[in-house]
Every structure is written in structure tokens, then in C-alpha cells.
Design brief:
2 domains, 13 strands, five-stranded mixed sheet, four-stranded parallel sheet, 6-phosphofructokinase activity (chains A, B), Rossmann fold, kinase (chains A, B), glycolysis (chains A, B), alpha/beta, elongated, homodimer
């Protein structure tokens, strides 16, 4: 069969395992060199395609590509750049097709979340209209776990493992200090819209009095009085209180805790952080000594603690994306299907992009405990398998070894294009 | 020879490996059961001795004790409680001796930092005056690495490895996002007085342009204009800027950055956090989009990423403490002596407590780069060996497995004592 090139790009916030998906895509392309010629990666995601800033992946050795499996971040650069409405900004989409045409690219693998699924679908539709034979496959990724259809999103399991582990470890710390020192520890985690990551913190403990004593979800309106009662109860009964709070925690009226209208001495909005805000409330209302942590990028970059399941799934959706393309499927996304909870078994199936694009999956209410401050048994049954297994990266001189890419650029063939 | 009991207690902020020292002490006591009877642990440190709240460690299985080696936090409870001046508060010291006498305790192992070394010395001196035969040995511990005599302090190496790894991983993240999103990432680390932990962040990179681009030490007065110039330079030349900042960063006049006099809308002092303060300055002066993280307890509890060297040294000082006691040494501390940098070799030697107590070891100026914003070659040579090697704990259901102790209490023999 005829040989054509492939394009791969990373989109949106990166994860600890998005490069494992890249690894799956590239290795599978290399295994099918009779049909797929070169893989070109977009430098900084789709911007690389628009500006014809392409990385020639064929310049990277097999060892380097294999090392992507244990390298966090986005190896080819990602971007926060949403293509505009296709009706009024058709030029951008047409430019993509032009670039693909100029470089004989007939396979389009787009690794991202909900927005990029939408872009992938539109590119697929437009190429069909324009009569250019392009196979567009979306590769799922997001730490937020909010993609529909797929049982979970690659990237989430590793964050979940990191947050559950960190919650457990920090709880051991405060438990040993609480007699004379810190009584309350607050850990702020990602997930502005959905409480999946906060819920993962709940995996750290289970029995009566085991931390975390409170998980604060964006899905449950924040009630200061009720929260403080719980904190006081935990300190009085267990000696200390561990709280995992979502950055998206909000009041009944939708106002974020982290944006409570406070301003500093210069009149600037108080610098974010739900954790310090909540810790301040604890001090103010209850007088307890506190500590707080904000994991931020640390949580989604922590490949050193990647979940084995997550790494395997991230790799598998990369592999499946290429297989789907070679089988002639178009506008699809490899989705993870849960076959059973215990033992946990999963498989990959194809989902039509039209069903994926522009839909967010929130944490179902039944995964949250009735009182709203922890995960339910159903939530635990869903979350627990996703943090299973370890997949430590190789270390060198005490630090995780990272893939070091050449990132050789492909010669441009088209006039410049401004974004 | 006659058999007497031993007392072990943990003091001050706990570390990822203080329990490895406990493991070394207890296992070595068990191996010398002809001379050492039971090990009694102080519940919540020295408070346990004062209040006769003793844990009978003989009730714990060998497996449980072995598991201490990979369990963070302080297994028997620690405390922030400094014994007062011996001249005016002699009662407390005498009470310790009474409790020891009541339970036939003739070996006193105190696991802590500078303050507890001082307590240990005083207890030793007083017991001698009172004619009670007590052998007092201090077991070094502190994430701050500020103990004198010992080349490094057990607990520091694991924090250093965690911070270096987290800096490296988060740098991979921001590097891939910086084209269209976050330009500056700020990681706040512990170390209010000494920049050892901040310096460890410097191990993440070395070459021109490699992150972290700035390390901000408490030892170097903070100059906002100069720092912002550096941040701007990094963003313009490398696309992004990673900053590791010590919680103890301060201005020339000694004011901490985190306590810059700002108040919130309610008139309260702005809730701490050097990282959000510094990130706010970046936004204000340069307009760059930022992210910030505060690792807090996560860094010193992160046993999942313990440095092999650190775990081994923590265990070794525990073993040596018991050996010193059995050899009849008193008022000593096992100290780590560096034999060579590369290959890194170390041994344990005894140091007199009189030389250890109440002295802090700061980061030498020659370990900091001349410009003040990074570690020098000498600093790197000192720090690099301490993060070497991995010693992953066993995992169960996706989480690190922790020792679970019975913490059986010893029957009290004395009247109650109020602190």
C-alpha cells in the first residue's frame, strides 16, 4: 500500500503520561513503515501545524522514543490554543489541510482533552469537504478525568496515585505532630470543575477516623459553618484533621473560595489558593495551628510515582489510535472500557468523536458520600483500580532519567501564517 | 552482664526517615537482649517520659519494626516541646530521672535536632550529678540539615531528592506549556533559616538555561528588582522561568517575604506563602502568567521517594547509637563523616554532645553561586551524593504500605506530673 506521513500533536495541560501515548503512537507508526512514512510532531501542539513548525520524529532513536514512556511533560510542546469557530474562521482549518498536503500527511493524531476532540472532529469534517484524504484520530488525555465515553482518562490515574500517596504520607506526619503542634493540614488539589482528583485523596484512608477527614468537592456547595464543625470534631476525636480540597471549591452561589473578594494592601485581588484561604478560616474560627500545601504542577508532572495502569492505558490508546487509522476508521477516539472492577480488567474500544467532543463528565453524586465530605463505596470501587501498580522510571544520579530529544525541524514549504 | 531497659523518643519536626533510625535503635537493642531488656518509647516524644506515657515496644513484632524503615512520620509521636532552663526548672529534668528509675531505664536514646541534643546533654549531666547511671545518646535528625559536626543530617537527603525531582518534573511541565500559557513556576520549599533544601532544588539542572533558573536562599538578601531582571531574562531567553524559593527568603532588613505586611480585607495579615507572594510580584512587575506550588509536609513525608543513602544513614545512626551506649560512651551523638565525594563514601563516628548542642550550621557562602541565584560547583559536589539511590517502600493496593503499631502502653508506677 501507499506510504504517507503522520502528524502527532499534544494539546492543553500536559500529564505525567501524555508522552507514553506519544510513545505508543510513534512506535506503532514505526512498526507500520510500509504504510506510514515519517511522523511529524507539531511543535507546541496544533500551533506547530498552523505555523508549519514541524518536528521530524524520524531523527529520534528508538531508545529516545522508548524513554518517552517515562518522561513527564509534553515532549514536543503543548499549547492552550483553541481553534475558533469553523464558520467564521475557516482559514485556520484550511491552513491545517494545506500544511498536511504540503508534507503528505494523511494521518492526524491529536492528543488532548475535550476541546481538542472537537478540533479533531472539525478537521476531519473539513478535510472530507475539501476532498483531502485525512484520517483523524483523537488520543484521549486529561488529568481532570472529565472526558465522556471513556471510563477514565489517561493522565488521571497517576495524579490520583500521587494525591492519594501524598495525603497518606502527610497524614502520617501531622498525626505524629498533633499533640503539641499542627492540628489541621490542608492539601489543595487540581480539578476546577470536577472533583475526581479530590476524590482520589479519599483513597488514602477508609476506616473510622482515618485521614483524610474531609474531602471538599467542587460539586458540593461549601458551607463554612458545617465544614468548621467537621474540622473541630476531627481534632477533638482524632487529635488532628486532614483536608483535601479541590481548587474548584465554591460557595452555593458559585463564587470560588480562592476568589473571595479579598484584596491585599495594594488593592490587588488576594493571590489565589484555596488551601491558604481555608487554613485561614480554620485559624479564625477555631484557632487551630495549621499547615497547608498546594501541589499544583507537582501532581500532574509526578511521573516518578506514575500508576502502572495509567501508563499502560496511555500507551495503549496511542497504539490503538494508529491501529484505528490503519484500519480506515476516521473521527474516532480509542476509549477505555472497564470490563470489571475486581479484578480490574479493561480494554480499548473505538468511540465516535461526535459523541466525545464538547461534553464534560462530572463526578456522579453517588460517588460522593451522602454527607458530601468523602467518597462513597461506589466512588472507591471506581477510583481504587486506577492507582494500582507502580511503574518507576529509571533514575540516574539520583534523579529520574528523562528522554532528551533532538527536536529536528522539518524544512518549511509554505509561506508564513499568522495566528 | 546485667540487663536494663532503654528509652527512645522522637523530637521536633518528623522526617521521611526518622522511623528508619527508630528501626536501627530497636533492632540493635533486640540483638543485644543480654544487656538491653525492653525498649520503651516515649509517646509524643519527651512528653511521654515526663508524663510516664510509655509505649512497650516489645509488643511489636519484628516485621512491624522492620516496616518502620519505610514508614514516614514519627511512629511513636513526636513533639515540639523544649525543656526549660535547667537552673530554674530542675523539676522537669529530675522527673525524667525518676521515670527512668521507676522503669529501670538506663539507656536514653533521643532522636532529634539541635534542641534535643541540648536536652540529651543536660539529662546526661543531671543523672550523673544525681548518681543515677544513665547512658544518654542523641540520634541526629532534621530535614533542615543544620546540625553541626555531622556532615549531613538524616532526613535531609530524602527531602533533597524529593525537591530536586519535583523541580525537574515540574520544569518538564512548564517547558511544554510556556509557548502559549504559563511562563513562570515558583516552588516554595522548607528551610526557614538555612538554604540547604532550596539548594537541593538546584540539583535539577546544570547547563546553560536548564531549570531551575533561580534559587532564592534565605542567606542572600532578596532584591526585588534584581530578581525580576533575572526572571525576565530567563523568560526571554529560554521561554520560561523556574524558581525554587526558600520559605525563609527575606529582605536585607530581615523581613520575610511571606510576612510583607499585607493584610486581607478583614485586616488580617496576609496568609503566608512565599510562593504566592513572589508569583504576585512577577505578575505585577512583568505581567507573566504564573503557577506556584507549596510542598510543605509533602516534602518531608515523601518516603515513597526516599534517598537510599539517607535511609541507610538514618538506620546506621540508630544502630551506632546503641553500640555507643553499650560500649559505655555517654553524652555522644553518632555523626556522619564524609570520606569522599566521588565515589561517595561515608562512615559513622562519635561526636561529643557538648560540641553539637545549640549550634546551627548554615549553608556556606561558597556553596552558593557567586551571583547568589544558584548552587556553586562546591555546593553541587556536597549535595549530589545525598540524593543518590532509590529505596522505594513496598506498595499495597496502589499505596505505600505503612507500619501499623499496637502502641501498647506500659503501666504507670508514679503519680501524675503536669507539664
Amino acid at each position: 500500500m501507499a506510504q504517507h506521513n503522520a502528524f502527532y500533536a499534544q494539546s492543553g495541560g500536559v500529564t505525567a503520561v501524555i508522552n507514553a501515548s506519544a510513545c505508543g503512537v510513534i512506535e506503532t507508526c514505526r512498526q507500520n513503515s510500509d504504510r506510514i512514512g515519517k511522523v511529524y510532531a507539531g511543535h507546541n501542539g496544533i500551533i506547530g501545524a498552523l505555523t508549519e513548525d514541524l518536528i521530524d520524529v524520524s531523527q529520534e532513536s528508538d531508545d529516545t522514543i522508548a524513554a518517552l514512556r517515562h518522561t513527564p511533560g509534553g515532549a514536543f510542546g503543548s499549547c492552550r490554543y483553541k481553534l475558533k469557530d469553523i464558520e467564521s474562521h475557516r482559514t485556520q482549518y484550511e491552513r491545517l489541510i494545506e500544511v498536511f498536503k504540503a508534507h503528505d500527511i494523511r494521518y492526524f493524531f491529536y492528543n488532548g482533552g475535550g476541546d481538542s476532540a472537537d478540533t479533531c472532529l472539525k478537521v476531519s469534517q473539513l478535510s472530507e469537504k475539501m476532498g483531502y484524504p485525512l484520517t483523524a484520530i483523537h488520543v484521549p488525555k486529561t488529568v481532570d478525568n472529565d472526558l465522556p465515553i471513556t471510563d477514565n482518562s489517561p493522565g488521571f490515574g497517576s495524579v490520583a496515585k500521587y494525591i492519594a500517596t501524598s495525603t497518606l504520607e502527610a497524614s502520617m506526619d501531622i498525626a505524629s505532630m498533633c499533640a503539641t503542634s499542627t492540628k489541621v493540614f490542608v492539601l489543595e488539589v487540581m480539578g476546577r470543575h470536577a472533583g475526581w482528583i479530590a476524590g482520589a485523596g479519599g483513597l488514602a484512608g477508609q476506616g473510622e477516623g482515618e485521614p483524610p477527614h474531609l474531602v471538599i468537592f467542587p460539586e458540593i456547595p461549601f458551607d463554612r459553618r458545617q465544614v468548621m464543625e467537621r474540622v473541630e470534631y476531627a481534632v477533638k476525636n482524632y487529635g488532628y484533621c486532614v483536608i483535601v480540597v479541590s481548587e474548584g471549591a465554591r460557595y452555593e452561589d458559585g463564587t470560588f473560595l480562592a476568589d473571595s473578594g479579598n484584596t491585599d494592601a495594594f488593592g490587588h485581588r488576594q493571590l489565589g489558593g484555596v488551601a491558604p484561604t481555608l487554613a485561614g478560616m480554620v485559624k479564625q474560627d477555631l484557632g487551630y495551628k495549621y499547615h497547608w500545601a498546594v501541589a499544583d504542577y507537582l501532581q500532574r508532572a509526578a511521573r516518578h510515582l506514575g500508576a502502572k495502569t495509567d501508563v499502560e492505558q496511555a500507551y495503549a490508546v496511542g497504539v490503538k489510535a494508529v491501529e484505528l487509522a490503519l484500519e480506515g476508521h476516521n473521527a474516532q477516539m480509542p476509549a477505555i472500557k472497564r470490563v470489571s472492577d475486581n479484578p480490574y480488567r479493561w480494554e480499548i474500544e473505538a468511540a465516535p468523536l461526535a459523541e466525545v467532543a464538547n461534553r464534560e463528565k462530572f463526578m456522579p453524586r453517588e460517588y460522593i458520600r451522602e454527607d458530601g465530605f468523602g467518597i462513597s463505596d461506589a466512588g472507591r470501587a471506581y477510583l481504587a483500580p486506577l492507582i494500582q501498580g507502580e511503574d518507576f522510571p529509571p533514575f540516574e544520579n539520583g534523579l529520574p532519567k528523562m528522554a532528551r530529544l533532538k527536536l529536528a525541524r522539518v524544512e518549511k514549504r509554505l509561506p508564513a501564517f499568522s495566528l
